Amino acid sequence: MSYVLGEVSMGLRHADGKIDEDRLWPIAGADVFEPSVPWRTFRWWHGQKHYSGTYWSSTMRDHVVYESRLELTRLLYADFDQDVTAVFAQPFLLSTTVDDRIRRHVPDFLVLRGKDVPLVVDVKPRRLLTRPKVNFALGWAREVVLSRGWDFEVWCEPPEAELANLRFLAGYRRDWLFDEDLLVEIREADLYGASLGDAFRAFPHHPDWRVRAAVLRLLWCQHFVTDLAVPLSERHELRQAPAAVTGSGKRDLPSPVEDCEQDIDAAEGGTTVHRREPRWGGHVNGSAVRVGVGTRLKYDGEVVTVEEMFGSAAGNEVLVRDGRSCRFRLSLREVLASGRAAVIPDGRGPGSDDPRETASILLAQLTDEELEAVRERAAHINEVLYGFRSGSAECPEPGEPRTPYVATAPKLQRYEAKAAELGVSVRTIKRWVRAFHVDQEAGLVHGGPDRGDGTMGGLGRADPRWVEMALEIMAEHGKDSQPTRAKVIRSVGPRLAARYGEDEVKLPTRATAYRWLEELERRKPTFRLSAKRNRDIAARPPGAYGKLRPTRPGEYLLMDTTRLDVFAMDPVTLKWVQAELTVAMDWYDRCVTGVRVTPVSTQSIDVAAVLFQTYRPRPAGRDWPSWAAWPDHGIPRTAFVERKALEEGEGDEKVSGKKGAAGPALVPETIVVDHGKPFISEHITSVCQRLGLSIQPARLRTGRDKGPIERLFKTLREGLLESLPGYKGPDVFSRGERPEDQAFFFLHELETIIREWVACVYHVRPHDGLVDTRVPGLRLSPSMMFEHGIARAGYIEVPRDPALGFEFLKTQWRPLHHYGVEIRKCRYNGEGLDGYRGETSPYTGPKAKGMWPIHVDPDNINYVYFRRLDTRRWHTLEWEHAPAMKFPISGQAIELARKVAGKKYRFPDDETAVAALLERWHLGLGLTMAERRIALRQAREQSAFDLPDTEGDDIRALPSVARILADEGALGPEDVEDPDADGAEPYEGPVPSDDDEDDELDGRDAADDFYADALEDA
Fold first, then answer.
1. 369 burial type by CB count under 10 A (0-12 exposed, 13-18 middle, 19+ buried)
2. How far is CA 823 from CA 110, 292, 355, 836, 881, in A?
3. How far is CA 378 from the centre of its chain?
4. Is 188 in contact with 202 (CB distance < 8 Å)?
5. Percentages (nearest 5) of helix, strand, coil residues in the chain
6. Residue 722: exposed, middle, or buried by beta-carbon count in 10 A (0-12, 13-18, 19+)?
7. Which of 862, 868, 864, 812 is nearest to 839 (CA)?
8. pLDDT at 258 > cutoff 70
9. Mean pLDDT, rounded, for 889-901
C-alpha cells in the first residue's frame, strides 16, 4: 500500500537540551545522532503493564533506554551482532503530511551497521500488526525510511529458546571482568568440533568456574559458534562460523484486518448456537475438527484459508492464502502443534466452551452412595449392550451372560427385560443407553447436587442483580475508609429500586445477605483485612502474574529500603529513633549481599554503600561459626573440585586470623529498584553506568515486582526483630504501650545483629521459593543455590582493584584553580592537581563543559578524590580546615553548622561553625529533626566505603618526612636504629584515650587521680 507523503522533516534532541526540528529528512546523515539523546522520556503510571529501564550496551559502552521488555530483546540481539556499531533509542521524530493530515512518529531504535545501511526498528507485538491504526502508522513510517535508502524492520517476539540463550550469554558481555591470559589460552587451543562440556573440562589447571565463565564469554564474542535455537547444554558443538540467529524482524507488514478478533469470535461462537444443552451428564468425548481444502485458520493474527494439501519429504504440507491473496506453504505439524495457528471451526460439535462440565468434575461432586448408584446403573447398561456387567467377555461374572441378555437376543427384547428388572420404562432404558454412548458413566448422572447454574459459586441461587450491586458498592470503597457489612446491605436495596424499580428485585433476609457477603468477601476483600491490604489486592492483575526469571547468580540484584519495626538508640541524645534498612539481594539464590541501617531516612550514598558491599562484602564477625563465613574470594569452599585453587586464599586467612566475608561477592548485571529518589538518583545512575550495570525499575506501587526482597523483610521481622527490645510491631494496632522506652541497641549494633542473622540463619535455611526444575521437591538454601548457580554458569570474579570504592562516590564537576578546587564553599588542594591547575578538561557533555570530575563522599567532606589522566592514579585532596577536625564531618553537617553559627556570630568561619554545632549537639539544645538526623549520620562508627590509601595519603609524601628519610638514607647500617631491638614497640595506630582502658573503666579511682575529689562538694 502506498501513501501520499509530503515533505518529511526530522527532529533531534541534543544532549545540551536543545531541540532541532528543522532538519530535512533526505539530506540528514547518520553522524548527526552521535550527540543526541532519546526523544521521549520514561512515562510511569500506576497500573502500567510494561517494564521500562536502561540496558548497559557493550556496543555503546553506555546505557540505552527501553520502554518494554520486548524492546529489551531487540537490544540484546543488536548487542550480540558483531556488525552493529551503534544503537540509539528513540533517535528522532519524523514529521510529514500523509493524505493531507500531519503525522508524527518516533521509531524505537536506530541501528548503525558497519557493512550495511542504517536500520530503523519499530517494536510491536505480533498480535497488534494487523490492527488498522498500528498498521497505518508503521506503513507510512516504513515508506519514509525506505525512500532514503535505509532499511526498516518491525520487531516482534523472537523464538523463546534463542532469546533465553542470548539472555544467558549477555551476562558475559563486560570484557574487563575476565582474565585476558585465560581467554588467549582458550583461543589458542583447538576446540573447534568439541562439545561445550569438553571445553569446560579442557583446562584442569584452572578452576572449573573460571574456565566455564571464560568459554561463555567467547561464545558471546562469537569466537565460538553453536546452535542457539535449542537451550544450551554441554552437548552443544563448538564451531567456527558466522553466528546465525533467527530473531523476529519483519521487513514487510501484514495487511490490516478490520475487527479480525470480533469476526473470529463470531465464527467460533456461531458453533454453539445450535447446541442443545443436556439436562444431565458431563462432557467426556471430544470431536475432531476437519482440516482440508477450505478450512480457515488463524495464523500469526491473520485469517488464512487452506487451498491445497500435499505430501512432501518433510511431511504433510498445506498451501494457504491470506487476505491479500498471497499464498505460502506451511507444515501441517506446525499448524496443529506450534501454537501459532488455530483452526476456526465452522460446524457443530462439542467444544471447549461447552456449558457442560467434564466427567471428572461431575463425578467428584457425588457422594459415595450416589457414585455407587451411577456405577450400578452403568453395569446394567453394559449388560444390555454386551451381555456382561463389566462390558467385556474377558471379565465375566458367575452366570454371565444371562439368558435375556445374550448377544443373539434382539435389542428391543433386551431393553424390555432390563426395564422389567429395574421397574422403569423402556423409554428410560433407551435414554440411558443414548447418554452412555455419548458420555459413558458421566451421562448417567441425574443433575447432581443442587449448586445453582454454575455461575454464582457459593451464592446458591442469589439474584445476579443483587450480587452485581453489592460488588459495585464494595468497589466504591476501594480508596475510601473501610465500610461495615451492614452499611453495604442498607445501600443495596435503595440502589436496586432506583435502577430496576420498586419490588423488581427480591431482597434476601438479613442472615442470608450476611452469608452472601461472606462469599463476596473472597472475591473482593473489603471487610476483614486492612484498607491498605484491600487496595493492594484490588490492584492485582486479573491474569497470571508475569515476573523476571533469573538464570544465574548476579543477573538481577534486588535493592529496596524499609523502615524497621524496632526502635534504635540515638547515640547523641540517648533516646529512641526510627531506623531504615537498605538491603541488596541476589534474585537467583536469595543471598543477601548488602545491608545498611541508617537513621530516619536513606540517601543515595547509602544505596551506593550497599551496592559496594555486593562487590566487597563486609568481614565476618569474630565469633561467627565457620560455616557462616564465606571465603574472601566469595566462592563457597564446597564449590571447588581443585583444592589447589584455594591454597593461597586459605593460607592468607590463616595468617591474618580472619574468618572470611559476611556474604558472597558478586558482579551484578541488572539492579531492580523502585522509584524512590535515592535509587533513581543521578548518583546511582552514574555508578551503574561506570560499572556496566543495567537498571530495571519496578512498576509503580507494585511490590510483587520485588517479591523476594519484600518477603525477606517479613521474615526478618518475624524471625529476628520481634525478639529484640524496642520492637513496635508492623502497624499502630500491633504496637505496645511504650516500646520506644525499650530501645537498647545503637544503629551500628542493630546493623551487626541483622548481618549476623542473615549469615547464620537466613543463608543456611531452606527456602520454599528456591527450586531446581530438574529435581522437583529438593529443598535448597541460599548458600546451596549459590553453589548451584556457580556450577551451572561459572563465576565472574569481582574486580580486585583496591581503588574500586572510588567508583561508588558521588561525582561533581568543578574547574581547577591555582588554589585548588572549590566544592560547597570548601577549598581542597593537593599535589595531585599539579600540572592541571587552570586547564580545561578534555571531557565533553552537558555536565562537563570543560570542568574536571571530583569524587566526593557526602559523609566525609574532609577529603575529596581526583584521578589524574596521565597516570590514572587516585589522589586525595584535603580540605583546608581538615587538620582542625578530629573526625569526619558530612556535607549536611557543615551546611547546618554555617547556618547555626550565622545566627550567633557575625562573620563565622568554618572552624567556628563546626565548634558551635558540636557544642549544640553536646548540650542537646533544641535539636530539630534535620539536626538530629545529621547528628545520627555523623555518629556512625564505620565508613560506608573501604577506600585505599592514595598517593596523597602516604605519610612519606609529606615534605618534612621525606627530608628525614633522605637524611636516614645517608647514614650507615650501623647508625640506623633497629626497629626490632629490645624496648622498641611497633606502631599500632592511634593510642586510645585513657577512658578506653578496661582496667581504668572497671577499677576504683586512685587516690591521686585528678577526678578523685570532683564530686566531694556536690
1. exposed
2. 40, 79, 75, 17, 13
3. 55
4. no
5. 40, 15, 45
6. middle
7. 868
8. no
9. 63
Residue recorded with cell 543471598: 591
Q: Kindly report, residue by residue over 153-209, the tens digit of the pLDDT.
A: 999 999 999 999 999 999 999 999 999 999 999 999 989 999 999 999 999 999 999
Using DSSP's 3-state secondary structure scheme, residue 628 falls into helix
SS3 191: coil
Q: What is the pLDDT of residue 23?
A: 79
| Sequence-ordered list of residues with C-beta below 8 angstroms from that of 194, at least 6 positions apart, any chain | 202, 237, 238
DSSP code per residue over 964-981 = HHHHHHTS-GGGSPPTTS
pTM for the whole structure: 0.75
Cα distances from 941 to residues 92, 469, 642, 888, in angstroms, run 51, 61, 40, 10
Find the radius of gyration of the CA atoms of the chain: 38
**Cβ neighbours around 632 below 10 Å, total:** 20
Q: What are phi and psi of 804, to 5 degrees?
A: -60, -30
pLDDT at residue 537 in the model: 82
Contact 628, 663 (CB under 8 A): no
Beta strands in 254-313 (DSSP E): 296-299, 302-312
Backbone angles phi, psi at 470, to 5 degrees: -65, -45
| Rounded-to-integer distance, Cα 507 and Cα 521, Å | 19
Q: What is the pLDDT of residues 90-109, one digit of tens each?
A: 999 999 998 888 999 999 99
109 membership: H or E segment, kind and range: strand 109-113
Q: How far apart are CA 821 and CA 841, in angstroms?
A: 13
Q: Is the distance from CB of 539 to CB of 685 less than 8 angstroms?
A: no
